[in-house]
Amino acid sequence: AGLKMVGRYSFFLLSPLYLTVARREHVPRYIAVFLAGVACAEVLAYYNWLQMNVFPDWPAGIRVAKEAEDTAPFVDHILYAPILAWASYLAAHQAVFGGRHRLLLAGLALASVGNLVFSGGRAGQFVFLVLLVVLVFQRLARRPALAALVSAVLVAGVAVVSYTGNDYLRTRVDMAIAEATQHEEGFDTSTGRRI
Fold it and tell me: What's residue 6's pLDDT?
């Protein structure tokens, strides 16, 4: 029953196997290939967003038909948004700490954050905000007070922009807050089940 529920995401269950055969010296290649794959998915997601919101005459793109506002290709926002959060962190980390092609990586990080804003994934937004704090503390490791201040400003800024700039995400966040505050009354909700 578990495998049936996981369905087409079951290949992610093989991640521990991949990690056991991964070679440490190839980690930059693995990250580069992962980021390239995410960049391809983001191009499709941006196309979907443009087709849905700006150019409705364009042909429909590759997307999951789970919810009308879902722009993610291949998988729904539940899995796509955390992948975007992880990709944005990896790209930003490589850009900040001296990876080759810094401008390209910074652009990918910004594109990933933008995609995350309109993807509607609440868990991915939360994961991104946590990883943003981690990145700031990594960068400002010798100045924890400044890192805390910069983290607070960045998290507040991204959260406000995401919440005010995306009706889909705002609706989902408001729904999660309502479900969390009334979880005894409505246990059969996504937030109620998690609580």
Answer: 65
Looking at residue 66, what DSSP letter applies? S
Classify the C-alpha dihedral 158-40-93-126 as positive or negative.
positive
What whole-number distance in Å separates Cα of residue 184 and Cα of residue 32? 45
Residue 81 · residue 124 · CB < 8 Å: yes
DSSP 193: H
Quote the CA–CA distance of 116 and 84 in Å, as a whole number.
Answer: 6
- CA 90, CA 174: separation in Å to the nearest integer? 29
Query: Would you say 174 and 183 are in contact if contact means Cβ atoms under 8 Å apart?
Result: no
Q: Which two tokens stand for residue 120?
A: 């509607």
The one-letter amino acid at 66: K
> Phi and psi of 142, rounded to 5°?
-85, -5
What span, in angstroms and rounded, lies between the C-alpha atoms of 40 and 47? Answer: 11
pLDDT tens, 8-57? Answer: 666 666 777 777 777 888 888 888 898 999 999 899 888 888 888 788 88
Q: Tens of pLDDT along 48-94?
A: 888 887 888 888 777 777 666 777 777 777 778 888 899 999 999 99
User: Using CA atoms, how far apart are residues 39 and 61, in angstroms rounded to an integer?
Assistant: 16
Summarize the confidence of residues 84-108 as an average pLDDT: 89
Q: What token pair was written down for 153?
A: 């400003």
pTM greater than 0.85: no
- Per DSSP, the three-state class of 96 is helix
